[in-house]
Design brief:
This protein is α+β, with helices and mostly antiparallel strands. It has five helices and 19 strands. A hairpin with a 3-residue loop joins strand 3 and strand 4.
Length: 350
């Protein structure tokens, strides 16, 4: 027996040691793997876009743009000593949502407007982080209970007369609360043009088309993907023929666009969240250290970061203007006259 242990003892001891260490090694391997899996993955570019926060000139601290599409935090409503019955807010397109944004009578400030059916707030933002040069842009957040509040207007009050006018003059004549330059409807000789429910041109569209339907939904279409008749059969309130569309039909940023204007420029954009909830975005550009403007991909990423599910580029460059109460609030690269506008008007003109 002694000879057996002298001859085989070392081998048996090694086998015993391995038998003890194997379960320990397996435990450590599983523990290490579970720790590694618990580490949060690096965000993909799209997630990184949505995590941006924009600093407003009128807010002391940055406000994140998501998960809420709003760029401002609602002011808490003080509790009155006696609780009167609140004025009912019509459900409308929003189905009773965002009731705190509306008021029982007209309330107008330097940056907000509300009444029982319309609520608008605008702000100016300056981004010195996400681009190699500063970019300044303006956002008007628009809520409407009825799509008829979301209007358009021509320079000479008529599509057939054509012509252009100063943005301020169009806004003043139409009693606009907020307005943004449109698509220069007469620039193209084709396409579907519907304004305030009236069809002015029904021709094949060769540029991306944006349609605001009578039920408040907004869609964008590439040429050849749908017929004019299919669109008209749904009931159209507005349509714009300029483009390009800025988000794909899953609401994600795009990298290829149906346009020849690629560089950084001033931009006018309409964005869509849900029926009754829209935004108007004006990006200043061509102005050195004040604002460089955005190219199409940057503009697409901005609209995605703001939470839009559809977004459409309008007539930009020197045409890019935004007014509040008939005063231009952005800094246009040139004082160019415009052909048509997208607007929300005071009730006397709505």
């Amino acid at each position: 027996m002694k000879a057996f242990w002298q001859k085989h003892g070392l081998i048996l001891a090694l086998c015993l040691l391995l038998a003890i260490m194997a379960p320990c090694a397996a435990f450590l391997l599983r523990y290490g793997r579970s720790k590694a899996e618990a580490v949060e993955p690096t965000p993909v570019p799209v997630q990184a876009i949505q995590s941006r926060a924009y600093i407003s000139k009128f807010h002391e601290t940055p406000v994140p743009t998501l998960p809420s599409p709003y760029l401002c935090t609602p002011v808490p409503t003080p509790v009155p000593e006696t609780a009167p019955t609140p004025a009912p807010t019509a459900a409308g397109l929003l189905g009773g949502k965002y009731a705190w944004r509306f008021s029982s009578e007209e309330v107008l400030t330097d940056h907000t407007y509300s009444d029982p059916s319309v609520s608008i707030s605008w702000d100016m933002y300056r981004d010195e982080v996400n681009y190699d040069r500063p970019v300044t842009f303006y956002i008007a957040d628009v809520l409407v209970q009825d799509v008829s509040s979301f209007r358009t207007a021509f320079a000479k009050s008529s599509y057939s007369l054509g012509g252009t006018k100063a943005m301020e003059d169009i806004a003043k004549f139409n009693n606009c609360i907020v307005a943004i330059s449109g698509d220069f409807a007469r620039w193209h000789e084709n396409g579907l043009i519907v304004r305030n429910g009236e069809v002015f041109r029904d021709l094949k569209f060769t540029s991306d088309l944006c349609v605001l339907y009578a039920d408040g939904t907004m869609e964008t279409y590439e040429p050849g993907t749908i017929s004019n008749q299919e669109i008209l059969d749904r009931g159209v309130w507005q349509s714009w023929h300029f483009g390009p569309e800025l988000l794909d039909h899953q609401g994600r940023p795009k990298t290829k666009f149906n346009t020849g204007v690629w560089g950084r420029n001033p931009r006018s954009v309409i964005g869509y969240y849900e029926p009754g909830h829209y935004c108007l975005v004006l990006v200043d550009g061509r102005q050195g250290k004040y604002s460089a403007g955005l190219n199409m991909q940057e503009l697409s990423e901005l609209m995605y970061a703001l939470g839009c599910v559809r977004a459409y580029n309008l007539d930009g460059g020197a045409t890019a203007h935004m007014t509040w109460r008939s005063e231009v609030i952005n800094s246009p690269s040139k004082d160019r006259k415009v052909h048509d506008v997208i607007c929300v008007c005071f009730p006397s003109k709505a």
